[in-house]
Amino acid sequence: MSWDQVWIDVNIATMDPEISAPYGAITDAAIAIKEGKIAWMGPRSELPEFDVLSTPVYRGKDGWLTPGLIDAHTHLVFAGNRANEFELRLQGASYEEIARAGGGIISTVKACREASEAELFELGRQRLNALAKEGVTTVEIKSGYGLDTETELKLLRVARELGKHHHVDVKITFLGAHAIPPEYKDNSDAYVDLVLDEMLPAVIQEGLADAVDVFCENIAFSLAQTERVLSAAKQAGLDIKLHAEQLSNLGGSAMAAKLGAKSVDHIEYLDEAGVKALSESGTCATLLPGAFYFLRETQMPPIDMLRQYEVPMVLASDYNPGSSPLCSSLLMLNMGCTLFRLTPEEALAGMTRNAAKALGVEASVGVLKVGMQADFCLWDITTPAALAYSYGVDVCKEVLKNGNLVHQ
Ligand code: DI6
Ligand code: FE
Predict the structure, then answer these.
(1) What angle do CA 227, 233, 234 make, to 5 degrees?
(2) CA 145 to ligand 1: nearest atom
């Protein structure tokens, strides 16, 4: 056998559903890499002979390997912060009240319109580094803090540059319909026209997005407006997804599912009809415990129903300055379990296998098996449940991206 590197003294949480053990685990395992892909994996006792003189062999000190983590929902390119609104909320103002008074998303929009591409890139790079340190190897980044053509394109270009210059793979989502900008305060339909007639064609022309998202909510876009945007995106061949049922139930999830959305995200207010629609279309349910926690929401997403209908559950940070200023993958694993009562295995699947599905990259990442990209992390833990259990001590020892060591 001729391989580029071999890892031994490891346990592997493959997250491969075809391996029946919890976490798809293989204990006392070995894994071999060739040309950035997994070339062999299995119990150490079955490791075929290979040229030990010319092949680097790494020892994992009996730690655990998992697939590289995937954060499938972030808004990590933004300028400014909203610490002042945090203070207002602590004095009793609600997220919706602040948004209606022209703060909220719109205050971040102002900061983004003023910021240069270089400034936004540097802020994005630092945040990507924070996620990468905790094992993230693939991330989704949305626009949505520009709300005019020039600034939306600027944010998307920054996301694209981050993907080019950082080892973390970046999937990009155009979220022009995130909020109604002040210029269109009394005419949101005209803003939707702008999104469809000017922004979306420009985004497509420059090849700046993999997917399109909308914030379907009373304080943002109606069901009919959302459907217009998602239908156009689908027609243009882009993936679609939706911020839906976060603060109320407008039926956005069921509509998006019928259009073939990859995921619907937040979904605290999702009902059984919505869950059924997701299961029929194979749409993922993305849970965002950071926003639930930070906004001190009390309405729980319908976890039991999602399990019952076997809807793939994704867990993501929703990292953004307003509702989830928490730039951490491991904290989300913990909150997914403590707040939403996921099992640690469900939580990890939500940041690996199911997250890959939500981003349409499941053919290459999200589970560890032969032929997949060698994107994996080595953790100094004794059981995979420890990833969700404890937070704050650095247990991420190595990260490999396409077979290259990238951990700083
Ligand atoms: N829902 C959210 O939680 C974020 N966007 C959205 O549509 C919040 C974004 C923000 O407050 O800046
Ligand atoms: Fe979001």
Answers:
(1) 85
(2) 12
